[in-house]
Amino acid sequence: MLYPVVDVSGWEPARPETIGREEKLWLREPGAPVHSRERDWLFKPVIVPANGNRQGEDWAEKIVCELGELLGVPCAEVQMAVRNGRAGSVSRNVAPDGWNLVLGSLLLGASSPDYLDGELRPPGRPGHSPEAILRALDGIDAPPGTALPDAGTTFAGYLLLDAWVGNQDRHDQNWAVLRETADPGRIRMAPSYDHASSLGFNLRDTRRQALITNGVAAYAAAARAHRFEHSPGASRSEIPTLVDVCRGILRGRPAAAYWWERLESVGTDRIAAVVAAAPGMSAPAATFATELLLINRRRLLDVG
């Protein structure tokens, strides 16, 4: 059974989205209370660049959301969507009423003297390391509605999900915490969001087919954690892989066994079914995404 595609043409605009460089728009779900933002959804249209290649941000967002649920990683709820004939996806607001979203850039800026805002494009992304993030998250609770013990365990799960799906875009505005607006002003980890840059979403089918024939493993191994701190003069090959970063963070931590067991519990058939349920994917896109997930799963479990 395919995932539904929700027609949001009639949904009222709630507000523009100012974070990020791509076109996005917050929409209010029909029937939602006027003063509530819990049922606001962020519409992100599929990008068709000048070369005419229709990218797969919509199915990538949906597939990663479903895989996150299988892993037990708290993620924003995602639906594939269409608005006025334009394909895309909608992601539900991760901030409940009474809570504000505080971006990782703000949290690190207040807690780490070595951090430089990623908006400035600083060479080497100083201060935006998994270790610095975990220090900033120390003592913070997990997202609402999850049984995970704390924010650090949750963020380790985000790194595992990124390594599995090949998401190289975990920059300092692509993770956040939630701050309660009323006293006592509690802070919790926010669910993970913005996973469109995954699963080879922007490849041409001709490229995917060539990789399927001979090269998915090499493509998987080339996924680098370039959004995290690294030597400013490092070549791409010298930047740690997503798998290496995940391994380094989980090594020796109490959360390691939990996350490896969660990944191992998601079998081949289930992975294939999650991908196959995405409407609009070409056969090469579906085959490539499935192969990438299977290869990365093996790579991660080999180091688990």
TrEMBL record:
It comes from the Bacteria. Gene3D superfamilies: 1.10.1070.20. This is HipA-like C-terminal domain-containing protein.
